[in-house]
């Protein structure tokens, strides 16, 4: 069967499957790693900004911290340096009036406290209106002449007082150390969480004046968060509290050395919302001043995690969310983990705070976690849609369902940047052509020609797909198909299986032609025969083209050889079957020799190849008349 070398039919480019490239592939976007870092940073920044600037989120962040302070503050003994003397409802029941507070009783209390050896006295009662002149003077003299510092409260400019009230207040407190008792309230929920140590005119606050009297030389110049002093247990107050009417009978040892704040604890009067408030309860202003004073005396700062720590935690959780989304778990598992991690974080934060650790604000980190998951999930989904769209453009309608599923399942092994990455693999290439196609084209009008060709191609593509091959391109009447791509084979057994599928495909293509020819003859269309070239070997496969148009292409000697084998079939007299000649290269024959029959053609010189190629003519054993 040896024959002389013949001029092989030219392929579609320099090598079959080597399609011309209009322009270099464009940049398809950042690599996943850079994009993931950008998503993590953006999610963390967005969460931090939202938690501070979006009113509902900021309120939620502060409220969650409040609940943590109220429910999980670590137990502390009552502060040893502070005591409260309060005028409550029982105190006023024996007094002639509620306002102004009985100044004679106040004078007596100042005298008793001074005699008990207290460190300093803070009077959290605003003297903004006159009482009985003699009693007023008695109280004023008691405060001025006391052997310990007695600090009165004054009013800052923003305090709503009449000119007459402000003048009386200034006259009454002249010569005394004074401090303002104005409270910084959140504009959104009116809760007191911060303390302003100095007013706009430089006036120190009552706690600052008392702290200085207690020996504290350095106090913060700017507003600071209040570190609320914990309770010994659920029922004991953080500071000793004594009713005003009992001060005269208290043991001096209970008061000696303490800073005592005197104020009121009346329903609806000087009551404020704080993190300590629960179930709608409020905190007296004098107790808030005591918490601030305790913080200054102890040199403590707010236990809330600093902004830098919160930002680091937000970035960490955003990165973890991005990593989780990139891992690609099922959606139900992603949703469960997305919910459980914040819950675990809140539980851990509560336990940490209760154990004396910092108060970790988790709203911003939780938002960053969710934003990282959401953003990366959306990006991954969009990327998968782009990958699927790209693969459908390359392989749509030309592969069987199992092959399509395998391509999608193994896309990570050969896709990069929304396009197949170049890869070297071993596959089997099938190239088929219609005998005498040029003559047929000249004999048929355009419409019947296209209808006839479409019928032929549709039948052949179905056979290729049924044998798990991938049709890459039509070159006129020619079909280029590959078995073993784009998912690379890793074992010789898999490579041989691809070769067998390619050979079985070629045989079935030949077996389909008799039925097609009978139908075409009945329609007045010409019958056809085909030539098929098959070769197995190494290939470079990948997507060629630019952003507007790209094709999955095969480059290398294997693709060229398959095309040359098909063209060489013109010189071979024998047939594989009545309507088909199938020429295979020796690597393909070695893979299928135990499964089919072939006649040796010999070693032939194919165009473009230096070495001769041993080739074989397959024989379809189901067709007895193979020599026609």
Describe it:
It is a single chain. By secondary structure, this protein is of the alpha/beta class. Helix 6 links the parallel strand 3 (150-154) and strand 4 (178-180). The protein has 17 helices and 21 strands. The chain folds into 3 domains: 34-53 and 306-384; 70-298, no CATH class; 419-619, Alpha-Beta Plaits (2-Layer Sandwich). The strands form 5 sheets. Strands 14, 15, 16, 17, 18, 19, 20 and 21 form an 8-stranded mixed sheet that branches. A 6-stranded parallel sheet has the order 4-3-2-9-1-8, sandwiched between helices. It has a 3-stranded antiparallel sheet with strand order 5-6-7, with no helix packed on it.
Q: Whole-number radius of gyration?
A: 45 Å
Unreliable stretches covering 5 or more consecutive residues: 1-31, 624-628
Largest sheet: 8 strands, mixed
The end-to-end distance, rounded to whole angstroms, is: 15 Å
Shape: rod-shaped
Strand content: 15-25%
Number of domains: 3
Broad structural category: alpha/beta
Mean pLDDT: 84
* Total number of strands: 21
Helical proportion, percent range: 40-55%
Total number of helices: 17
């Amino acid at each position: 069967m040896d024959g002389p070398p013949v001029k092989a039919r030219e392929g579609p480019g320099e090598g079959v499957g080597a399609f011309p490239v209009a322009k270099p592939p464009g940049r398809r976007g950042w690599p996943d790693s850079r994009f993931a870092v950008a998503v993590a940073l953006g999610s963390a920044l967005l969460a931090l900004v939202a938690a501070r600037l979006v009113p509902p989120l900021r309120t939620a962040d502060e409220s969650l911290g409040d609940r943590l302070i109220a429910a999980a503050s670590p137990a502390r003994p009552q502060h040893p340096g502070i005591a409260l003397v309060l005028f409550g409802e029982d105190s006023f029941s024996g007094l002639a009036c509620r306002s102004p507070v009985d100044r004679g009783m106040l004078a007596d209390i100042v005298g008793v406290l001074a005699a008990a050896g207290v460190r300093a006295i803070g009077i959290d009662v605003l003297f903004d209106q006159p009482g009985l002149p003699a009693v007023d003077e008695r109280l004023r003299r008691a405060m001025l002449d006391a052997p310990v510092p007695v600090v009165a409260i004054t009013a800052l400019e923003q305090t709503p007082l009449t000119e007459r009230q402000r003048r009386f207040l200034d006259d009454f407190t002249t010569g005394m150390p004074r401090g303002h008792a104005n409270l910084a309230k959140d504009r959104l929920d009116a809760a007191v969480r911060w303390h302003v140590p100095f007013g706009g005119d430089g006036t120190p606050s009552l706690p600052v004046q008392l702290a200085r009297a207690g020996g504290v030389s350095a106090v913060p110049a700017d507003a600071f968060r209040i570190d609320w002093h914990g309770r010994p247990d659920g029922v004991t107050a953080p500071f000793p509290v004594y009713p005003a009417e009992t001060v005269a009978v208290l043991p001096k040892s209970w008061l000696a050395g303490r800073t005592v704040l005197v104020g009121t604890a009346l329903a609806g009067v000087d009551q404020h919302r704080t993190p300590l408030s629960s179930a709608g309860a409020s905190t007296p202003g004098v107790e808030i001043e005591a918490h601030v004073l305790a913080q200054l005396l102890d040199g403590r700062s707010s236990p809330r995690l600093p902004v830098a720590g919160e930002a680091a935690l937000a970035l960490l959780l955003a990165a973890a969310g991005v990593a989780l989304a990139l891992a690609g778990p099922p959606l139900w598992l992603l949703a469960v983990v997305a919910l459980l991690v914040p819950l675990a974080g809140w539980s851990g934060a509560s336990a940490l705070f209760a154990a004396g650790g910092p108060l970790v604000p988790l709203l911003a980190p939780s938002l960053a976690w969710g934003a990282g998951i959401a953003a990366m999930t959306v990006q991954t989904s969009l990327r998968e849609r782009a990958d699927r769209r790209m693969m459908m453009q390359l392989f749509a309608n030309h592969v069987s369902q199992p092959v399509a599923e395998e391509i999608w399942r193994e896309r990570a092994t050969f896709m990069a940047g929304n396009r197949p990455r170049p890869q070297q693999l071993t596959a089997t290439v099938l190239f088929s052509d219609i005998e005498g196609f040029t003559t047929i084209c000249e004999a048929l009008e355009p419409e019947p020609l296209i209808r006839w060709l479409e019928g032929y191609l549709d039948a052949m593509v179905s056979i290729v797909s049924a044998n798990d091959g991938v049709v890459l391109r039509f070159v006129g009447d020619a079909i280029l198909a590959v078995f073993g791509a784009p998912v690379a084979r890793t074992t010789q057994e898999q490579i041989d299986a691809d070769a067998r599928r390619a050979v079985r495909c070629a045989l079935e293509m030949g077996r389909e032609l008799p039925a097609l020819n009978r139908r075409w003859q009945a329609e007045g269309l010409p019958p056809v025969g085909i030539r098929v070239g098959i070769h197995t070997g190494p290939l470079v496969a990948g997507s060629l083209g630019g952003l507007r148009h790209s094709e999955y292409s095969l480059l290398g000697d294997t693709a060229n050889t398959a095309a040359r084998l098909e063209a060489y079939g013109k010189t071979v007299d024998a047939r594989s079957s009545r309507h088909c000649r199938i020429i295979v290269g020796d690597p393909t024959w070695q893979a299928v020799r135990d499964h089919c029959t072939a006649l040796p053609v010999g070693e032939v010189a194919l165009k473009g190849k230096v070495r001769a190629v041993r080739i074989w003519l397959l024989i379809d054993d189901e067709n007895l008349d193979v020599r026609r």
